[in-house]
Amino acid sequence: MPPRSPLPRRHGLSAAWVCTPHRDPERPAGWGSMGAWLRDHVDARVEVESMLATERFVYADGRPVADADPYRAHTFVWFHRDLREEPVVPGPLTVVHRDERVVVVDEPAFLSTVPRGRHVTQSLVVRLREELGLPELTPMHRLDRVTSGLVVCATGTEWRGAYHAMFAQGTVRKTYRALAPWRGDLEAPTTVRNHIAAIPGTGRAEVVADGPVNAETRVELEERRGALAVYRLTPRTGRTHQLRLHLRDLGAPIVDDPLYPLDLQVDVDDFTRPLQLLASELEYADPVDGVLRRFVSPRSLPLDSALGDPGR
C-alpha cells in the first residue's frame, strides 16, 4: 500500500499513483532517470512530457519529480489526471434519506455511480461528495449508467464494511420497475434463471446456455399501458445487465435500451432517451441498529427524455 498522498483531492477524487519496482529488474537498458521510467510506465493517455515540465508529478514528501532526477527503486509518485470537459447530466440528484451513517440518493439516468471511463466529474460519488461536503462518501452498490433510481452510500470509512456486507450477502431487497412491450402470452409472475457472463471489451453481457445458474429474477406484470406494460422486477442476484437480458429473453426488451436486443452505438454524451428501468425500492434491516429501512424512488415511469423528472 502507498503512504498517504501528498496531493489533496481534486473533484472529490484522490490522486493517482505509480511506484517503481522494489528492486531493479534485469533489463537490457536501465532507466537513467525518473522521467524515463514515467514515460515507460504511466498510462499512454497521460501527457507525461507536459506534466513533468509543469511539475505535476510529486514524490511522497510533495517535492516535484524532475525529468532528470536519478532513477530510484521502490519510489512512489503521485499525480492528478487531466479530465475532459464533461457535459452535465440532466435531471435531479435527490437525497431521499440522510443520517450519520448513510445517504440514500435517487440518481438520474446517464449519471455513472462511480468514476469510470469518460465519466468522472459527472458521477454520483464525485457530485455528492462536493454537494454534501462528505469527502469519504462511498456508494455501497452500483447501477448501470443508463439506469435511474436508488443508491445507498456510506458517509465514512467506519461504516463501509457493515453496509457493503449486506449487499454482498444479498440481504437487501431490491425492487425495479421497467417499461417494456406487453406480452399477452407471457405467464406472469414468472422467475427467470440462467447463467450470465460479461463479454470482455464490449460493455455487453450474454446468457450462456447450459451454464450453472448465477442469475435469477422474479418478473411480475404490474400494469398494462396499451402496447406497453410496467413490469415489477425482483432480482435475487446482481449480474451485469441481468434485468435487461431477462426481459429481452422473455420477448419484452426494455424501452429505449441502447444495447439489447441490438447495440445502437449511442454516443456516451447522448442523454435524449433514458432507459425505462428504475431502481424503485430498497428494503433492509440496518446492520448497525437493526431497524427495518424502506426507501422509495420519487420517480415514476416513463422517465422523461433528457430530463429524468421525478414522478408526476
Q: Would you kindly provide a written description of the structure presented here, covering whatever features stand out?
A:
The chain is an alpha+beta fold. The protein contains five helices and 14 strands. The strands form three sheets. Strands 3, 4, 5, 6, 7, 8, 11, 12, 13 and 14 form a ten-stranded mixed β-sheet that branches. Strands 1-2 form a two-stranded antiparallel sheet. A hairpin with a 4-residue loop joins strand 9 and strand 10 (204-207). The chain starts with 15 loop residues before the first strand and ends in a 16-residue tail after the last strand.
List the helices and strands and how they pair.
Elements: E1 16-19, H1 34-41, H2 48-53, E2 76-79, E3 94-98, E4 102-107, H3 124-132, E5 138-139, E6 148-154, H4 157-168, E7 173-181, E8 190-194, E9 196-199, E10 204-207, E11 215-225, E12 228-235, H5 242-249, E13 277-285, E14 292-296
Parallel strand pairs: 6-13
Antiparallel strand pairs: 1-2, 3-4, 4-6, 5-6, 7-12, 7-13, 8-11, 9-10, 11-12, 13-14
CATH fold naming of the largest domain? Pseudouridine synthase
Number of self-contained structural domains: 2
Order of helices and strands: EHHEEEHEEHEEEEEEHEE
How many beta-strand elements? 14
Percent of residues in helices comes to: 10-25%
Uncertain ranges: 306-312
Number of helices: 5
Query: Tell me, what is the CATH class of the largest domain?
Result: Alpha Beta
Strand content: 25-35%
Oligomer: single chain
* First-last Cα distance: 49 Å
Q: By helix and strand content, what is the structural category? A: alpha+beta
Mean pLDDT: 91
Task: Based on the coordinates given, report the CATH architecture of the largest domain.
Answer: 2-Layer Sandwich
Query: What's the main sheet like?
Result: 10 strands, mixed
